[in-house]
Design goal:
The chain has 193 residues and is mostly helical. The protein contains 8 helices and no strands. The protein has a domain of 128 residues. The longest helix has 29 residues. It is elongated, with a radius of gyration of 31 Å. The protein starts with a helix and ends in a 7-residue tail after the last helix. About 3% of the residues have low confidence.
Length: 193
Amino acid sequence: MRYLLGTACLAIALALLAGARAYRARVLARFDADEVARLRAEALKDPRSMASFGEIARPFIMFGLFYVAIKTTIAFVAFDATRTLSWLDLAGFHALLAGYGTWFTVRARYWLPQDAVARELDRQLEAHMRANPAPPVHRGGAGAERAEADAGAEARELAAQATAGGTPAAAEPPDAAAGRTAPAARAPRRRAA
C-alpha cells in the first residue's frame, strides 16, 4: 500500500495538468488572445455567468486546497503516518491538490460562455462566406436528368414496398425522395365526421 496512493495521486495530478493545458490550447486555437480577452470581459459583466462565478470562487477554492494540504501534513506528522504511508504518498496528495488548483484556475480563466462562442463563430463564418463566395450551381443538363431518374427509381421502390405492406418505419414519402415534400407530409388531412 505504501507508494501506491502517492503514485496514483501523482498520475491524477499529471492528468489534470495535461487536461488544463489541452483546454487552454483548444480555446487559444479557436480564438486569438485578444478575442478571448474581449469575450471574457463581455462575460464578466453578467454577474450570473459562470465566468464571473469562477473568478469569485477561485480564492475560496485555493484557500480550501491550502487548508487541506496544511491539515493533512500536520496529521501526517502528528500521528506518525510513516508507519503505513510514505512521504511519497503525502507528496502525491499535495501534487493532486496543486494539480486540481491549476486545473480550476485555467478552466476559470479561459472559460467562455457558449452563447458568446456561438456568436463569435457565426461572425467568423459570415466573414469567411463573404470573402469566399460559393461557386454557382448549374441546374439542368445530363447530371440533373440522371439525379431525377435516380429519385424516380427510388420513389417507385418505396411505392412498391408500401403496396406490398412492407413499408419500413423510416421510409420517406415518394415525393420527399425526389426532393419535394408531399402535401400529406405537410399537414394532416381531416376526416369528415
